[in-house]
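stage 2 :: seqdesign
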C-alpha cells in the first residue's frame, strides 16, 4: 500500500478477471471428456504460465541480451523494484492456480477481486492521503481503503451471482438479503487487508501480496462457510484427485 499507483500495470492485471469468468460460466464444459473441464483447463493454463514465466525470469537474471529485450517490451508493467527480484506476476498466477485447484468459481472471483480492486485502490489512497504510516511504510488510510474496496467488490459479485438462483453466494437467498455471505465477505476482506499489510518480498519476491491476498481470502471465506454456516467440507474444498476426472 505504500507504493505508487501504476495505471498500466493495474490495467494489465484487470485482465485477471477473464479466467474467473471462464470458470464461473463453465465455458469449457465437457471438453476433452472431463467432468471438471473448465476448472482443469484453467488450472493447466495457469500452471503453464507459471512455468513459462519462471523460465523467462531465469533468462532475465542470467542473460543480458534477453534482459534488455524484456525490459524494452514489458518493462512498463513491472515495478521498478522488480528489476532485482521476481516478477510479481509469478506469485499472482500461482495463487490463482491454488484457488482454482481447491475452490469453486465464486470464491475464485471474490479472492481475485480483493487483489485486483482492493490493492490498487489502497495504493492510490495510501500514496495520496496516507499521513499515518506503520513500520513497513503502509498507511492506515491504505488499509481502510483496501477493506472498503474489497467489501464493495464482494457486494457487486453477490449481485452478479444472483443470475444463478441456486448460488449460495447470491445477494438474495429465499427472498431475503443474504447477510451471512455478506458478513463473511466483510470478514474475509479484513483478512485480505491484513495479508496485504504483512506480506513482503521474501524469497526473491515470491512472498508477494499477489500470492498472499487471494490465498488468505479464499481460505478465510471457506473456513467461515464450513464452521459457521454448516457447509460440508466437500461443498467448499474440492479434492485435488477429482480435477482431471473423465466421464
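stage 2 :: out
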Amino acid at each position: 500500500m505504500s507504493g505508487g499507483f501504476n495505471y498500466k500495470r493495474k490495467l494489465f492485471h484487470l485482465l485477471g478477471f477473464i479466467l474467473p469468468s471462464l470458470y464461473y460460466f463453465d465455458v469449457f464444459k465437457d471438453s476433452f471428456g472431463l467432468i471438471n473441464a473448465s476448472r482443469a483447463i484453467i488450472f493447466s493454463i495457469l500452471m503453464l504460465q507459471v512455468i513459462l514465466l519462471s523460465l523467462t525470469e531465469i533468462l532475465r537474471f542470467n542473460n543480458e541480451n534477453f534482459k534488455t529485450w524484456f525490459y524494452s517490451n514489458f518493462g512498463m508493467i513491472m515495478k521498478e523494484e522488480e528489476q532485482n527480484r521476481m516478477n510479481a506476476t509469478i506469485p499472482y498466477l500461482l495463487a490463482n492456480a491454488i484457488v482454482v485447484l481447491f475452490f469453486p468459481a465464486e470464491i475464485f472471483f471474490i479472492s481475485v477481486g480483493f487483489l485486483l480492486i482492493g490493492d490498487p485502490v489502497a495504493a492510490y489512497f495510501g500514496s495520496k492521503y496516507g499521513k499515518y504510516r506503520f513500520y513497513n511504510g503502509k498507511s492506515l488510510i491504505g488499509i481502510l481503503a483496501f477493506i472498503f474496496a474489497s467489501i464493495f467488490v464482494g457486494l457487486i459479485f453477490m449481485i452478479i451471482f444472483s443470475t444463478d438462483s441456486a448460488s449460495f453466494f447470491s445477494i438474495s437467498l429465499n427472498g431475503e438479503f443474504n447477510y451471512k455471505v455478506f458478513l463473511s465477505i466483510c470478514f474475509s476482506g479484513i483478512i485480505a487487508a491484513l495479508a496485504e499489510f504483512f506480506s513482503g518480498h521474501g524469497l526473491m519476491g515470491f512472498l508477494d501480496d499477489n500470492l498472499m491476498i487471494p490465498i488468505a481470502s479464499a481460505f478465510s471465506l471457506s473456513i467461515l462457510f464450513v464452521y459457521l454456516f454448516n457447509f460440508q467440507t466437500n461443498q467448499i474444498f474440492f479434492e485435488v484427485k477429482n480435477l482431471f476426472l473423465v466421464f
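stage 3 :: structure notes
- The chain has one domain: 7-242.
- The first helix runs from residue 7 to 13.
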